[in-house]
Amino acid sequence: MPSEIREPIRHASMRERNLAVLLGVIAEHQPVTRARLAVLTGFTKTTVSNLIAVLAEAGLVHDGDMLHEGDRGRPGIGVAVNGAGAAGLGLEVNVDYLAAAVLDLGRRVRYRLLVAADNRNRKPGEIAAALARLAQQAVDSANEQGLPVIGANVALPGLVDRAGMLRAPNFAWRDVPAADFTDLGLSGLKLPTGAENEANLAALGELWFGAGHAALGDFVHVSGEIGIGAGVVLDGRVFQGAHGYAGELGHLQVDPAGEPCACGARGCLERVAGRDAILRAAGLGDSATAVGPLEPLSALTTLLDAGDRDATEAVRRAGDALGRALTAVVKVLDPDSIVLGGIFSALAAWTTPSVEAALRAGGLYGQVPTVAVSSLGKNAAVLGAAGQVVEHVYADPALLLR
């Protein structure tokens, strides 16, 4: 059990740590009495009562009904997390849409909206302005529900390095400050607005909200759209690499003689298995002129259901190339699972067999990770972005007291 003091530390940091421990235990066991919390945490009853008073003042917990715990002893008041006490806003910029989601402290989705937009030829400032308008819509909706949004995170479609610079080949952006997308003009936020690669946030979305997240272990989440990224989750944390560039799966070379890629190389995975590449190979042209992000996939799945030869071969080839690229990743990282997200979740019935066959063919000593299909689809990154705000609150509830 956690103890109240493990080492000599300043009083403020000890209280902050204890607040986080107590809030986490309440969330896990709610509703739970103060007496039971003292047993679960190892804190004294007085400490538990004092900490609950602080959390309640911050709006993070509240008292509920009387509870009988066990056959003996008097009933106590049950304490629970106040789901409406704080909320996180997640935002996403992608090639052909913008998205927003609001999660409350109980990790429930309270608002979600995806807006189709052809962002490929728009300037960063124009997209940032549209994102700010979408953010305000989400905050207004939360406020109408009596839900205070205390922070925001933005999922961006490219690499965000340690210096906060964004590189997005599919937008022809190089060294665009990620901060350009975090100045949302929102009032009342208590936490600074962050920005991160969408593939990393999609992996966190899968970790926290995916249907099979508990059984994934260490996993690689493949985020497939026009570009292809991967979020690597090891020991429950996203691995970003020395410069923040880990997971650029779409730019692994699968065909040295293949087409030039926007990154400057040739024959990259996304030139075979990215959405535009699949659509062109299926005879559907380019998705940049489509009405929305779901329209091209709808047309493609219609062809696949009808057994169209070109469409079937396009997704088979994409699945094979993805599987061969993942084989290299598996040999380096040895994950328990691979999770197919984005377009690969929508096309799972046709691409997964090719992915699994390529992994088996290239497997090391017969060790092949489990291949799972994400249940979150296009919502993974925006949920991961919002979820990260909520996780910050659980990790350090004292943030709301400052």
Compose a concise summary of this entry.
With 402 residues, the protein is of the alpha/beta class.
Keywords:
15 strands; 402 residues; five-stranded mixed sheet; 12 helices; disordered N terminus; single chain; alpha/beta
Shape: globular
Q: Would you tell me the overall average pLDDT?
A: 89
Distance between the amino and carboxyl termini? 28 Å
Order of helices and strands: HHHEEEEEHEEEEEHEEEHHHHEHHEH
SS-based structural class? alpha/beta
Q: Which sequence of strands runs across the widest sheet? A: 5-4-3-6-10
Low-confidence stretches: 1-10
Which range does the strand content fall in?
15-25%
Largest sheet: 5 strands, mixed
Number of H- or I-type helical stretches = 12
Return Rg in Å. Answer: 23 Å
Roughly what percent helix? 25-40%
Total DSSP E strands:
15
Question: Which helices and strands appear, and what pairs or packs with what?
Answer:
Elements: H1 11-29, H2 34-41, H3 45-57, E1 61-67, E2 76-81, E3 87-94, E4 97-104, E5 109-116, H4 124-144, E6 149-156, E7 159-160, E8 165-168, E9 173-177, E10 194-197, H5 198-209, E11 219-224, E12 228-234, E13 237-239, H6 270-273, H7 275-281, H8 295-305, H9 309-333, E14 337-342, H10 343-346, H11 348-362, E15 370-373, H12 380-395
Parallel strand pairs: 3-6, 6-10, 11-14, 14-15
Antiparallel strand pairs: 1-2, 3-4, 4-5, 7-8, 8-9, 11-12, 12-13
Question: How would you explain this protein's 3D organization?
Answer:
- With 402 residues, the protein is an alpha/beta fold.
- The protein contains 12 helices and 15 strands.
- It has helices at 11-29, 34-41, 45-57, 124-144, 198-209, 270-273, 275-281, 295-305, 309-333, 343-346, 348-362, 380-395, and strands spanning 61-67, 76-81, 87-94, 97-104, 109-116, 149-156, 159-160, 165-168, 173-177, 194-197, 219-224, 228-234, 237-239, 337-342, 370-373.
- The protein has a 5-stranded mixed beta sheet, sandwiched between helices. A 5-stranded mixed beta sheet has the order 13-12-11-14-15, with helices on both faces.
- The longest helix has 25 residues, at 309-333.
- The protein is globular.
- 46% of the residues are buried.
- The model is unreliable at 1-10 (pLDDT under 50).
